[in-house]
Amino acid sequence: EPEVTQTPSHQVTQMGQEVILRCVPISNHLYFYWYRQILGQKVEFLVSFYNNEISEKSEIFDDQFSVERPDGSNFTLKIRSTKLEDSAMYFCASSKQGWSSYEQYFGPGTRLTVT
Amino acid sequence: AQSVTQLGSHVSVSEGALVLLRCNYSSSVPPYLFWYVQYPNQGLQLLLKYTTGATLVKGINGFEAEFKKSETSFHLTKPSAHMSDAAEYFCAVNDRDDKIIFGKGTRLHILP
What we know:
The complex is a heterodimer. In chain A, 0% of the residues lie in helices and 50% in strands. Chain A is built from no helices and eleven strands. Chain A has strands at 5-7, 10-13, 19-24, 31-37, 43-50, 53-57, 65-68, 75-79, 88-95, 105-106, 110-114. In chain A, strands 2, 4, 5, 6, 9, 10 and 11 form a seven-stranded mixed β-sheet that branches. The N and C termini of chain A lie far apart (37 Å). Chain B is mainly β. Chain B has no helices and eleven strands. Chain A binds chain B through residues 3-4, 31, 33, 35, 41-45, 48, 55-56, 58, 91, 93, 98-100, 102-109, and chain B through 32, 34, 36, 41-46, 49, 51, 90, 92, 94, 96-105.
């Protein structure tokens, strides 16, 4: 069964460093998403992406964040200058269509630790 | 704005007993409602969803949930718990836009 994959599973970085989290969505999916979960808190929506554009973003997704689909398979989340409060589990998701398809398929997550 | 409240961050039930995980939501439009499960070191897996139609929805692994509009609830149940059900469960709502809004999650413990 096709699945969303994410690399790395755990990333440790120093405050102020740039970090890129990578995701490979399901191959025939057209909509892509990033969510994050700070330890002990809710899973929160960050951004959705369709047709090489951001379609929706939350207030968390400020200028420090960017997303890109550099080729036909990868979907990346970049944090330009990491802060301690960026430490969280980051989940990538994809769906065949937008909200009307109801189901977003989630990857296993990347745990980002900022020291 | 939509939101989800899950009552109880930890729930323990004995193997074979009824599982009941509570979820209440708020939404400005008829919502789409979901339950996701997360096993240790794995991603979020969709258990079941309600979009329209029948208010009792059945999902994988014997779970079901009932949408009750009057109570703004979408509680998850399973008649008989199994050790393999131990996981974290997330209730979520979608207000017909791109984002899914999650509850804080309930960790289900199964006692032998």
